[in-house]
Design a protein that fits this description.
The chain has about 170 residues and is mainly β. Helices cover about 10% and strands about 35% of the residues.
Length: about 170
Amino acid sequence: MHYLLEYAQLLYSSDKKTCSINFITKVNPKLGTEGTDYKILYTFGKTEQEKNSYKLTSEDSYPDGLAISAKVVDKEGKQLAKLELEEVYFMWDNPTVNQGSQYEKGQKGTIVELFGWPYDDIAEECEFIGNEGYMAVKVFPASEHILTFDTVEDGELNSCWFIYQPVSYRLH
């Protein structure tokens, strides 16, 4: 592990009018003990704080995404590690999808692609995806496929088309 690993978890309220962003963070134990040897500072847009969560409402608009990051600083304030994540986008900033009367509850509508997602994670998201009106979820084919550590073409390692080269139909 490098010095800092993290991801952001977005939790929407049931009415989808508020969202809490929670940083899930892991720091390399070689840096010492949090609070004694170092502290983590989280940045949400232009707000820097020690708390790993941040709450927004639908009144907060970030159509170009909200920049988020975390950094580890020692007791003197010297930066030891920093990790910037991709911008976060919120459902209330998405444009409205107008659909004709022939479409019912998302049928004949949008399909979400969750290529590469573990099936357990997809199962956790299914209720939310369905409630948002998506018709279906696209995933990689469920088969054992070619995997190589040799570069095949143009320096690519395990190109996306490898997923479509089944070697068996065993499901694990």
